[in-house]
Amino acid sequence: MKEIRIHGRGGQGSVTAAELLAGAAFEDGQFSQAFPAFGVERRGAPVQAFTRISDAPIRLRSQIYEPDYIIVQDPTLLEVVDIDSGAKDDGIILINSDFAPEDFDLDTNARIMTVNATKVALDIIGRPIVNTVLLGAFAGATGEVRASSIVNAVKGRFSGKIGEKNAEAVQKAYDLMAEDK
Amino acid sequence: MTVIRTLDKDKMDVAEGSYAVAHAVKVCRPNVISAYPITPQTHIVEDLSQFMADGKIPNCEYITVESEFSALSALVGSAAAGARCYSATTSQGLELMHEVLFNVSGMRLPIVMTIANRAVSAPINIWNDQQDSISQRDTGWIQMYAEDLQEISDMTAQAYKVAEDKDVMMPAMTCMDGFILSHVYEPVVLLEQDLVDEYLPAYEPEYSLDPKNPLTFGAFADPTVYTEFRYLQQQAMDNALPKIEEAANEFYEIFGRYYGGLIDEYETEDADIILMAMGSLVGTIRDVVDKLRAKGVKVGLLKVRTFRPFPAEAIKNVIKDAKVVVALDKNISLGLNEGSLFTETKASLYNTKVDVPIVGRMIGHGGRDIPEKTIEDIVEEAKGIISSGINTESKYADLKEELL
Amino acid sequence: MSIQLGGVCQPGTTRVNKTGGWRTFRPVFDYDKCIKCKLCELLCPDMAVLPMDDGFFEFDYDYCKGCGICANECPTEAIDMVLEEK
């Protein structure tokens, strides 16, 4: 089983990202589970969402303490949240940033990867909404889900032009990370 | 029959728990829905309202109200008029319904209501435990607790089947852990309309309010007859025990899924240690049982699926040969320091030949997360009970001493 | 008699219970004083004041409990409360 924790701020679509990732993994033929860190949601407040992906049906209902992958939607969260908490030595922390991985000084052995998701979102979608972009980057960086499944999940949620643009952004981020991998 | 969860991935969608429930309600063809939104039940009624607005629930009225008390009261009248009725609530909303809960069961109205289990105030807390529905255990409602999204969906249809049975005619609560199940996304088969129609026939009330043929409902009962009303309600609950099993079996025949009726067992056959639990915690315990079994620990799980009527016989048969039983409770009876699953299991063993040590551990109150480690520690402690007897009969398993 | 499901029963069962037997004082009309104002009919809590074809009223002694509200409220004192002979 692979466990993913997504850090974001209220309104950035972290919970939606976790749900779309679960949908994409299921389309890939895996079992999945997505849930928010049940809190009192407020726009701008730090929030977390979780996804589990497994070959077998998932029965575990606890929160995720030692994630295989951590996705950070907003690098300013590093100042207020212990985003590397429980990160595995062989895990990956994927941060939305225009800095390079070595610019981040985190107390972890996990591999840090960065993607300028905000730029991709602004270039393609025209708005700084990074949740779907980061899913494409996640697929490229980890190979845990197919890019096409992320695209399908995104199109299933957002129809018309918005869906098309999000799908394009997903593919762009996937390609960027797949080169890095 | 062992538990059968056919995994037909082609039929599954990744959906939210609340949506799966709302969909299940829709295909049960309710005639009247009335509910008042309250976290974490809100998504259920939002989805139902959307279905209504889209015209997807034919022959149905959604009555908006100003409180949970009114929601259930509106359904009392609707059910008396012969409607198949549905509501959903949680926590303070359910406690506000308390008085009406007795009216519904006393008038023998087979209303089905989903409870998105949540802690009760004060202090105010919107997260999961089961204090809300357990506190309503004496109101004459059938209570069933689901482990995952498939089960809470399927349980909705089963609840109508049992509640509307002529030998039962009692209301039913289907309970899902708030947030943990109501807000989770996972693969689930959304109930198929044609199969539900085959499983659940239209509700045919024995009596119904009709101005052309007036009848009195909810009349006065003086001391010469009141006792007999209560006796008949208990008799209906007794009748519900086999009917719940039948409803589960019939469901299996049509849908191919089976979770047990009253209870479910996991690795209990040769178990020295049996953990008892209700709701979503059961899934986590299954994982812990597998881990510990791999290390040679003889531990098993008894899932209590139906809490009212209380399946004392079924429970006794499972735990009679264990060396220790631990009942886990997401509720507490203040002043007794016990959770209800523990109290009632313990009580049902007294005056019998079954002599198994049993302890209660309260856990996961107010949304406190239950990691596998907490369960593993409970099993470790249970091993000590086998060798040196009971030290503490009932206590919190996840208390933070440092805050006291 | 056995209890029906949920205590559902036929309506109008209070008709069987002729509450007039509780009465100590019975109201009696003096039709010479009555001005047909209908106050007694309106105010009777037991619907025991019944209109007649000529516009006057009569008491339904099967259900009149003798509360005296009609006599108390009558603007022309046309109703006397007379001790029942039992």
Automatic annotation (TrEMBL), chain A:
InterPro entries: Oxidoreductase_gamma_subunit, PorC_KorC, Pyruvate_synthase_PorC, Pyrv/ketoisovalerate_OxRed_cat, Pyrv_flavodox_OxRed_cen. GO terms for molecular function: pyruvate synthase activity. It is an enzyme of class 1 (oxidoreductase). It comes from the Archaea. Residues 10-175 form the Pyruvate/ketoisovalerate oxidoreductase catalytic domain. The keyword Oxidoreductase applies. Its EC number is 1.2.7.1. SUPFAM superfamilies: Pyruvate-ferredoxin oxidoreductase, PFOR, domain III. Pfam families: POR. It catalyses: 2 oxidized [2Fe-2S]-[ferredoxin] + pyruvate + CoA = 2 reduced [2Fe-2S]-[ferredoxin] + acetyl-CoA + CO2 + H(+). Gene3D superfamilies: Pyruvate-ferredoxin oxidoreductase, PFOR, domain III. Keywords: Oxidoreductase, Pyruvate. Heterotetramer of one alpha, one beta, one delta and one gamma chain. NCBIfam families: PorC_KorC, PorC_Meth_Thtga, PRK08534.1. This is Pyruvate synthase subunit PorC. It comes from Methanohalophilus euhalobius.
Automatic annotation (TrEMBL), chain B:
Gene3D superfamilies: 3.40.50.920, 3.40.50.970. Its EC number is 1.2.7.1. Signal peptide: none annotated. Pfam families: PFOR_II (PF17147), POR_N (PF01855). It catalyses: 2 oxidized [2Fe-2S]-[ferredoxin] + pyruvate + CoA = 2 reduced [2Fe-2S]-[ferredoxin] + acetyl-CoA + CO2 + H(+). InterPro entries: PFOR_II (IPR033412), Pyruvate:ferred/Flavod_OxRd (IPR050722), Pyruvate_synthase_PorA (IPR053390), Pyrv_Fd/Flavodoxin_OxRdtase_N (IPR002880), THDP-binding (IPR029061), Transketo_C/PFOR_II (IPR009014). One of its GO terms (molecular function) is pyruvate synthase activity. Keywords: Oxidoreductase, Pyruvate. It comes from the Archaea. Residues 24-246 form the Pyruvate flavodoxin/ferredoxin oxidoreductase pyrimidine binding domain. This is Pyruvate synthase subunit PorA. The gene is porA.
TrEMBL record, chain C:
SUPFAM superfamilies: 4Fe-4S ferredoxins. This is Pyruvate synthase subunit PorD. Keywords: 4Fe-4S, Electron transport, Iron, Iron-sulfur, Metal-binding, Pyruvate, Repeat, Transport. Gene3D superfamilies: 3.30.70.20. It comes from the Archaea. Residues 25-54, 55-84 form the 4Fe-4S ferredoxin-type domain. Heterotetramer of one alpha, one beta, one delta and one gamma chain. Its cofactor is [4Fe-4S] cluster. GO terms for molecular function: 4 iron, 4 sulfur cluster binding; metal ion binding; oxidoreductase activity, acting on the aldehyde or oxo group of donors, iron-sulfur protein as acceptor. It holds the Pfam family Fer4_21.
